[in-house]
Design a protein that fits this description.
66% of the residues lie in helices and 14% in strands. The chain has 651 residues and is of the alpha+beta class. The chain has 2 domains: 254 residues, PAS domain (Beta-Lactamase), CATH 3.30.450; 255 residues, Methyl-accepting chemotaxis protein (Helix Hairpins), CATH 1.10.287.950. Strands 1, 2, 3, 4, 5, 6 and 7 form a 7-stranded antiparallel sheet that branches. Strand 11 and strand 12 form a beta hairpin. Helix 11 runs antiparallel to helix 12. InterPro entries: MCP_chemotaxis, MCPsignal_dom.
Amino acid sequence: MFKKFGLQFRISLLILSIFFAMIIVSSLVNIILVNNANRAKSLSYLKKSVEAESYRGQNILKIELNYLNELASSLEDLYNIGIRDRNTYLNVVSNCVKKDEASIIAMGFLFNKDLIDNDADYTNNEFYRDIKGQFGVYLSKNNGNVIQQKFAASELNADYFVNAKTTLKPYITPLYSYNIAGNNIDIYTWSVPIFDNSGKNIGVVVADVTPQSLGKSIEKIKPYAESKVILFDTAGNLVYNAGRSDGIGKNGYEVYEWYKTLGIIEKVHSGESLNFEHFTTVFNEVGTYVVSPINMLDGYNWGIEILTPSRVIQAETRYIRNTMILILVFILIVSLIITPIIIKKKVSNIIILLAKDIVAMSTGDLTIEIPKGFEKRTDEWGDIARGWGKAMSNFNNVINTVKHSAEQVSTAANEVLIGNNDLSQRTETQASSLEETAASMNEMASAIKESAESVAQSTSMVSDAKESLNKAGTIIEDSVNKMNDVYESSSKIMDITKLIEGIAFQTNILALNASVEAARAGDQGRGFAVVASEVRNLAQNTQESVKSITSLITDSNDKIKLAANSVQESQSIFNEILEKMDRASSIMDRINIAAQEQEKGIDQVNIAISNMDASVQKNAALVSEATSASESLLSEANDLLKAISYFNLKD
């Protein structure tokens, strides 16, 4: 939407918006701070006022106590000087009641038993009958007259008598209802103990006070004209309530629920002050409450509440706030009028002049000069104009330089294009030659590979033959060993046959000797001679058999020896063959290794040729790309020259 308006309006709006925002924020902060400070100050003033008024209220409320202390002192003096006449005491109290102390509506006293005359003498007296003749007097005012009332027996145990006698200190009761001269009236009672010269308690004096009698005095206790005061006793009973006349005598918790919520009575009883804001039906608006204790006696705090409309406390704050708002509105109106005029004179008119030069430059005119008068300005606009002039001059020089460079680039690109075309032709010829060489090398590599495979097969066959010869040599060697074992066994058999032959020879001799001995024996040795003859025959047969076996074994040994020699000669021949096969295998291994290396060398040469072919192909592609780039560069240089021709340059 703001694009429809001029720069002057938009700049004015931006500046004023920021300015207004700053002023509004600062004003709000000031108003809040002033409001808080003034509110705190007012609240502090109110609290101090309430504390001061509390002290003032304490003095007002204790006037009756002071008055009662004077009465107690008078009665003590009468007692201590030995006066025991009841009428004298009665007259003194009656005179005190007649003094018309407005807040006190009745006074009385109660002496301990048998201290003033003999109590038994008054048991039939209408004023002392109920308390068995004990001297107790209660005098009240009624239309200016003093009326004597009797004490009921139950009153002897009332808190205003018991507490004063027990603690031997003054005591104040909470608000309660009491029948005075035939009327039930809300009162509270002061009681003071009285003593003889030895300090012994001899009785109690009391004074009854009505809350209504405190109205004029309490009403003066307020810091603002619209403030309302509430006074409550130690039990929380309302003694005075400027907000609600029907609440007197009722407990604050019954009249105001928020009293119970905040624990007002307990806090005041403990001596604590508090303040807060809350909507109140008294003013039908938010009010500020300040509650403070009033120390009536040690341990007995009454409470005073002062309610003031918050608007009254914050009146000064509202005045300051309204004044600041009026000043702010005045500043805004003046700014709305002056700011656009200043911006038009100091900004808009100058921008219009500079805009004309910018529009001229956009049409390609680089011959424009600084607007007249700007070169003498010493402010930022002068700096902008001079900077603009220098920028246009530098821009003109740059365009001229670019034009000259573009012309040189065009010429160089044309020359590079011609050279790339010639290089492309030579690269294609070289690529064709490399392809033919690669084909020949592939054929050579194939032939060498076949030769290498044949050599590998021959090597494998020689290795197989060598293994067979090794196996045969092993068998021959085993045969030689076995022949040697057989020869050794034959030799051992021959030794055994010789032993047997020797045994047979010995046996034959023994048999011969036996026969000789048998012949000598005659008939008795005939049987033994026969046996000896058989043994001799057997020995001879054995000897002949052994000779035949020995002859056979000797012949076998000769043949085995010949066979062993033949086997050993075969082993020697096989060993020679193995040595020759080893040399043949070694030669074939070297041939195989040489063939494999030759095959690898051919493969490497083939790979190198393939790489050269690929490089040549890449070179051809690069040459083609360089040619295309040269053509593109030439075209771009021509386009740049056409674009530069758009500008109107200085000489």
